[in-house]
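Show me any protein, keeping tokens residue-aligned.
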Amino acid sequence: MKQLGLFHGSGGNGDVFWLPYLKNHFEAEGWEVINPDFPNSDKPLLAPWVSTAQESFVMNSETVLVGHSLGCPLIMSLLQRSDVKIDKAILVAGLYDNTRFDHPFLEEYDWEMIKKNCKQFVFIHSTNDPWDCDEQEADLAFGNLGGTKIIRENQGHFGSTTKKQEYPEFPLLIKLIED
């Protein structure tokens, strides 16, 4: 069965921005959709988020993971710890560089292990991300993993409560998940 994992970022939950839009669409298409709320979202720690994700579902060869912001390094951490090769990871406004960002959530990545555990990567970033989750972050991950890099003009963080950017729909993601 097709399986979709949706991972929110810090300060969020499974009901923010375009996550419900994707959840509703793919549930209607018969996919199993996993959309957990991660603990301590305002002060996230990697280990509890990894545990929550691992307890929410078991990845398989038909799994597609979509992360927003801090949900992206969570996906990297899951893939690094996995023994299953998933179908696709779509990473929106992600951050990966622990030398650029002083965030305890980030870790040293085993890029080869991550690459081994996912057939296809898609990185989506904006030219004006207010938290610098920009093309430089896309280049780091894309340079290590390959895949597809999409840079959109003036889309901010693709959803932000602080910046009052609602971003309730994201049709591009439906197309990318279905491709």
About this structure: The CA atoms of residues 81 and 114 lie 8 Å apart. Residues 3-178 form a domain with the Rossmann fold fold (CATH 3.40.50.1820). The longest helix spans residues 46-56. The chain has six helices and six strands.
